[in-house]
Each structure stands twice: as C-alpha cells, then as structure tokens.
Write a structure and sequence with these properties.
There is one protein chain. Helix content is 31%, strand content 23%. By secondary structure, the protein is α/β, with parallel strands linked by helices. It has a four-stranded mixed beta sheet with strand order 6-7-8-9. The chain has a three-stranded parallel beta sheet with strand order 1-2-3, sandwiched between helices.
C-alpha cells in the first residue's frame, strides 16, 4: 500500500495544514467560525493547538461562546491533558443593520492590525515554537506511540512496523533537502509519480538505516503508518516546472527560501557509508 494518498476535499487539506502547524488561531465571531472550531476540534491531535480568540462579551453585548460550544469544547475534563485555549479581546466595533428593526455589531481590528494587548495575550499562550525535537522509540509491547513528535517501531514475525508522527515526518523530509544528490535528482525531468516514488524510496531507505543503528533485531520487510493518514505535500517554496506544454515530465525547482528553511534541520540527518545514491544516511 502506498504511503502517499492524495487529499480528497478541502477539509482534509485544512486538517493536514493544521497538523503540521504549531498552533491554530480562530477569531470566533459567527456561526461560520463555530463550524471551523468544530471541524478542527473533532481531531483530538489538534485540540492542544487551538487558540480561540473571542470578542469581549460586554463590548458586543453578546456571548459568542454559546451553551453548545461550552459543553462540547470547554467543559472541564480531568482525563484530558490540555484543552482549547481561549483569549478574550476588546475589538473595534461598527454597527451593522440587518434590517430596519434589527441591528448588530461587527468587529474589526483598528487599522487592520492586532493591538498591543491582544498581541501580548497571544504571546503568553504560545510556547515551544521552532523547538523541534524527534523521539525515536522502540515499543516494547508492540503498540504504536501516538505522539506527533515520536517515531515508534516494533518488530513482529520478522516485519518492522513503524508509526510516524506528523511533526516527525515534516522534520525528516525537510532534513532530506540537505542532501545534495537528493536535490539534484528532484531537479531532473520525470513524471510526478516518479518524483513521489523517489522521495518515498529514499525516505524508507534512510528510515531502515536509522532503526538498524538503534535495534539489534533483524527484519525482512517494513510496514509504515503515518499518523492521521497524512501525506507528503508540496508547499509554496517548491514548484513543478514543465519544459514542454505537451510533455508529462516535470522537474522540481527548490527556492532559496526553502533551502534556508531546510538548513536548520541538517542536525536531524547524518552521513554513513554507501547507498544507492552514493552515501548512506540515518535520521538523528
């Protein structure tokens, strides 16, 4: 089974983006943003990342967190380590006339900028940004460890089972872009499916070397599971270039901005001996 399925709808795109983000900020002012909160909060991995920014009740003469939301998302539960965070702010207001007899408040940011007080409140609620870490752990009881920064593995019947957290996948794929031969191969013209197969092949090869360096047990096959069924996705710093309009071949161009970002992940990959592309590597 391939580990690179394609996304089917906008919800999956948004959930994927959220899983690879440090935080999810939602400025809650309407039924539409209630739906957004419900969509993200339905995924338990995202709940600790969600920060709901809510206008002050007295200022708008209305409590935007209704009873349904309060029971669903803000009821205290001792079994959960961390819940949705909430920030109250005082917005700028303008009157919006729904009809001749109905008026409502619309909120906005003065000069389209976040004020100092709200900015300070946001900074107090966020932590560990850019403090990436990867935990590679052997599971003694043949169970995957469900943590987004953990790669867990176990061996059963000579088969290696690997469970990869979404943040681990992000960090390790970015680390691959510090390998010159890897980048040169992506810049060659070939079909998109071949580019994807190459990334998958190299990633698996380095993953095997990594686990071999940490585990004395042998295995003949490997099965990979990526938490939340996430996939490798293109981002704005990577582009597919088409040389000929009728040609199905593409090459991947890598911008300077993307190269600069990948450099900070160099510490997560280490050169070893020899592999199919000249040197062996393992993840740190």
């Amino acid at each position: 089974m391939p580990i690179l399925p394609f996304l089917r709808n906008l919800k999956q795109v948004e959930i994927l983006a959220a899983l690879y983000s440090d935080y999810v900020f939602i400025i809650h002012e309407s039924n539409a943003t209630s739906a957004e909160l419900g969509m993200f909060a339905s995924n338990e991995s995202l709940i600790p990342k969600i920060i709901l920014i809510v206008p002050e009740e007295i200022a708008i003469e209305e409590n935007k967190i209704n009873d349904f939301m309060r029971l669903a998302f803000f009821k205290k539960d001792k079994t959960k380590k961390e819940g949705i965070k909430k920030i109250i702010f005082n917005p700028a207001l303008k009157i919006w006339e729904k009809s001749e007899f109905k008026r409502d408040y619309r909120t906005y940011f003065y000069n389209n900028q976040i004020g100092k007080n709200l900015s300070n409140s946001i900074m107090k609620n966020i932590h560990n940004i850019n403090k990436d870490k990867v935990n590679i752990k052997y599971s003694q009881f043949n169970r995957n460890i469900g943590d987004e920064y953990t790669l867990s593995y176990y061996i059963e019947d000579n088969i290696l089972y690997v469970n990869i957290g979404p943040q681990v996948l992000r960090i390790q794929i970015l680390a691959l872009f510090n390998i010159d031969e890897f980048k040169r191969n992506l810049r060659t013209n070939k079909e998109l499916k071949d580019h994807i197969s190459y990334i998958e092949e190299i990633y698996k090869e380095i993953l095997i070397e990594t686990i071999k360096s940490k585990c004395s047990k042998t295995f003949n096959d490997m099965k990979i599971k990526i938490m939340q069924n996430n996939v490798f996705q293109a981002i704005k710093w990577i582009a597919l270039e088409q040389i000929d309009e009728d040609d199905i071949l593409r090459k991947i161009s890598i911008s300077t901005e993307f190269t600069n970002i990948c450099t900070k992940y160099k510490m997560f990959i280490e050169k070893k001996e020899k592999s199919s592309f000249g040197k062996e590597f393992k993840f740190e």
